[in-house]
Amino acid sequence: MSGKKTLREQFAAIRAREAGKSDKPTTLNEEGKDITEVPVAQPEAAKLNPHGSAGKQSDLAPEIEQLSFKLETQNEILRNLGENTDKQTEDNRVLSRAVDENIAKAKEHQAKVHEQNLLIARLESELATVKAKAGALQTSNETCSLDKISKDEMISKLFRELTESNRQLRESEEARAAAPQPPSPSIDAAHIQSIRIKDSAADKEEITILNSKVSALQEEIHAAKVQLKELTLKARHMAENHAKEMAELTEMKDDLGIEMACTKQSLISQKEAAEKQLEEMGILVKKLKLELIESKGNFRSWLRIRPPQGTLGKQPISIMGGDSVEVLDRHGTAKTFKFDRVFAPESNNAVVFGDLSEILEAALQGYNITILSYGQTGSGKIYTMSAMLDMAMEQIFTQLAKSYGSDYSVQGRCIEVYEQKVYDLFYSAREQLKVPTDCSGMWPFRDQLL
User: Fold this and answer.
1) Which of 18, 37, 319, 404 would disulfide-bridge 408, Cβ 3.0–4.6 Å?
2) What is the dihedral of CA 176, 181, 182, 187, to 10 degrees?
3) Is 16 in contact with 305 (CB distance < 8 Å)?
4) Contacts with 144 (C-beta within 8 Å, 6 or more apart), sequence order
5) pLDDT tens digits, one per residue of 249-264
6) Are 375 and 381 a contacting pair, CB within 8 Å?
7) How do 341-343 and 302-304 pair as beta strands?
8) Can you give the three-state secondary structure of the chain, one letter per residue?
9) pLDDT value, residue 40
10) CA 412 to chain centre
11) Is beta strand 334-338 parallel, antiparallel or unpaired with respect to 324-328?
12) Do 74 and 295 contact (CB within 8 A), yes or no?
């Protein structure tokens, strides 16, 4: 927007130069707007012919009839505009409801998606836990299998030892039975018999211990087999549940993806339709505004009254409504003058520009407009038009930015017509320019590109 700042600086320099000619200081704010409270002189409305002269009623009859027809046409356009405005309001209300419903559906869908995501996260956590338990069971199963193998080997070893002990015992008894018994005293026989009894008791005790160990190992093996069977069955059930949950999650994800795609496409279609409808409504509103502007006539006269200054006593002008004033001449006779708009002394530049802005919108639509400030010296023309120029530039650039973004260009001219002479104020040299003799309606002056 450097061009925008350049144009403001150039206009500010022109105003400062013109103010220097008239020895009137001009105060500019940081945006380049004229904020000097220049007194606005009383309008020369008294030079105008008062309306409704009794001597010219016959001459004014056709004009009155034409104005009545124009007023009826304007009223008809206003009625149509009101009907279209009501229709547009209702359409906007319907569109707003549709947008609210879509937003509610989108929020509900987002809540559902969030809930399903939480469910998926919970199921995945449970699945991870089940996998961990399955791994632990597998490890325990392998440990039990190893313990079973180790205990089986121990039982086999004990059985072999028991068998070997029984074989040795039998061989020992057979050897004793087969060996000749030398005659010996009775004490030796008793001693031998006690030794045999002790050896037999020790062997029986050892056999009993070995049998107890074997029984205990067999019980442990049976318990391990039962536990292994239970763990295997539980692992199988967990694997089946895991596969089933994974299938449900996959199906749920697929359904959720399809639903999200459909919802997204529906929202995109509704957004495009709403944007198209809003664009059509904007075009209709612009068209109705232009019709309203045209219905008000191609020429409008506005009057701005400045407050009395200095030693001026009673205000010689009175506002009658919003479109007419009553002026007292030097003889005290009241004369009434009508305008399209009358701005009271307390109306500031923003109020004046409020009525001017709609005409600027028409200019942006391609209409040629002219704004002429007329009044005696010191009536406040520069004060008013400087503010109008700054605010008009602001509105033009704002509208262009909304329509074209940051890629656009504007061409402007600033000329001065003074005592039948024309000057280009964008040109540094004070060189008089020739007035064109053709009727093209355009001034062939130097363009200032922004």
Assistant:
1) 404
2) 80
3) no
4) 224, 227, 228, 231
5) 888 888 888 988 888 8
6) yes
7) parallel
8) CHHHHHHHHHHHHHHHHHHHHCCCCCCECCCCCECCCCCCCCCCHHHCCCCCCHHHHHHHHHHHHHHHHHHHHHHHHHHHHHHHHHHHHHHHHHHHHHHHHHHHHHHHHHHHHHHHHHHHHHHHHHHHHHHHHHHHHHHHHHHHHHHHHHHHHHHHHHHHHHHHHHHHHHHHHHHHHHCCCCCCCHHHHHHHHHHHHHHHHHHHHHHHHHHHHHHHHHHHHHHHHHHHHHHHHHHHHHHHHHHHHHHHHHHHHHHHHHHHHHHHHHHHHHHHHHHHHHHHHHHHHHHHHHHHHHHCCCCCCEEECCCCCCCCCCCCEEEECCCEEEEECCCCCEEEEECCEEECCCCCHHHHHHHHHHHHHHHHCCCCCCCCCCCCCCCCHHHHHHHHHHHHHHHHHHHHHHHHCCCCCCEECCEEEECCEEEECCCCCCCEECCCCCCCCCCCCCCEEC
9) 38
10) 36
11) antiparallel
12) yes
204 token code pair: 């029986």
Let me know: does 275 contact 282? Beta carbons within 8 Å: no
Cβ atoms < 10 Å from Cβ of 201:
10
Which of these, 295, 280, 282, 284, lies nearest to 78 by C-alpha position?
295
- Domains, the chain, ordered by start: 100-289 (1.10.287), 411-450 (no CATH)
Q: What span, in angstroms and rounded, lies between the C-alpha atoms of 360 and 380?
A: 22
Measure the CA–CA gap between 329 and 24, rounded to whole angstroms: 30
d(CA 141, CA 251): 34
Per-residue tokens: 311: 């030693």
What residues contact 23, with CB distance under 8 A and at least 6 apart? none
| Distance in angstroms (rounded) separating the CA atoms of residues 223 and 144 | 10
pLDDT digits (tens, 9 = 90+) for 410-444: 887 788 888 878 888 877 777 777 766 555 555 55
Instruction: Give the C-alpha separation, 16 to 364, whole Å.
Output: 29
Q: Which residue has the tokens 């001026």?
A: 312
Highest mean pLDDT range out of 240-254, 271-285, 344-358, 395-409? 344-358
